[in-house]
Amino acid sequence: MKYYAISDIHGNVKALDEALTLIDLNNPDNKLILLGDYVHGRDSVAVIDKVMALEEKYGKDRVVVLRGNHEELVLEGESLFLHDTVVRKIPNADLRKYKKWMKQLRLFYRTKDQIFVHAGLNEGDGEEMIDEGRTVDDYLLGTPDDWFTNMYPPNTGKFVTDVIAGHTGTHKISGNPDFHDIYYDGESHFYIDGSVQYSGVIPVLMFDTDTKEYYSLSRDGRRLLIKR
Questions:
Q1: 154: DSSP letter
Q2: Which domain holds residue 133?
Q3: pLDDT value at position 84?
Q4: Band (85; pLDDT cuts 50, 70, 90)
Q5: Which of 124-128, 135-139, 147-151, 218-222 has the highest mean pLDDT?
Q6: Is 118 exposed, middle or buried (0-12, 13-18, 19+ CB in 10 A)?
Q7: Are the beta carbons of 107 and 67 closer than 8 angstroms?
Q8: Are 51 and 21 in contact (CB under 8 A)?
């Protein structure tokens, strides 16, 4: 089985389409986890429609859609678009449909090996908390809802499980202004680049449950991040 994860599409339907060519959902065991922030870009409506169609086609168990901070902003009353220069009339019925869909999106997705989340969770003092014998459930229960979608700065270092998140441009985490790929911190955290507005690319993370290998997928091939 393979888990694929993408994040921070931000209305870039072209980049989404390119990312989907790297993802194999023909295998009924494989899953796609989308980590949020579908809106606030030129083609926000097209992106939402495509994600909803994927969810409908493959089912919510195989296409897992999480909520990001930009969906939170829409639920609070912001437009689907970030810039006023983008003009599009959206029927009220459609807007209600999109908001209803966003409201029911999950804040995180947990597997045997990892937690998928838009921004992060309350990890406390990782080493100290691990010594106290706290479980993944303890950390999740200790995380306010808005941390899942808005937490910043991102956590790094050793944790009780692997964490896959987006939200932040990986050029900021890596300290390399030209880096727009998946950042692995060498311990427990994998960050999918959240700056498609600069790179034009949505990186794809793949985890193979049989080999316990994490890969970054791109048009140029795949790059091994770590084998567990």
A1: P
A2: 2-227
A3: 46
A4: very low
A5: 147-151
A6: buried
A7: yes
A8: no
In the chain, DSSP finds a helix count (H) and a strand count (E) of: 9, 11
> Contact at 8 Å (CB) between 44 and 11?
yes
Residue 154 is predicted with a pLDDT of 96
- Beta strands 204-208 and 189-191 are unpaired
| pLDDT, tens digit (0-9, with 9 covering 90-100), for 143-173 | 999 999 999 999 999 999 999 999 999 999 9
Residues sharing a CB contact under 8 Å with residue 215, sequence separation 6 or more, in sequence order: 205, 206, 207, 208, 222, 223, 224, 225
How far is C-alpha 214 from the chain's CA centre?
15
Q: Looking at the 3D structure of the chain, how many domains does it have?
A: 1
* The pair of three-digit structure tokens given for residue 154, joined into one six-digit string: 């991102």
Q: Which two tokens stand for residue 143?
A: 């995380």
Among candidate residues 51, 62, 38, 32, the one with its CA nearest the CA of residue 164: 32
| One-letter amino acid for residue 216 of the chain | S
Assign residue 126 the CATH number of its domain: 3.60.21.10
For residues 198, 176, 202, 208, the Cα torsion angle rounded to the nearest 10 degrees is: 180
Determine the length of the chain.
228
Quickly state the pLDDT bin for 94 (edges 50, 70, 90): confident
According to DSSP, the residues that pair with 216 across neighbouring strands are 205, 223
| In the predicted structure, residue 3 carries a pLDDT above the cut 70 | yes
Angstrom distance (rounded) from CA 133 to CA 117:
22
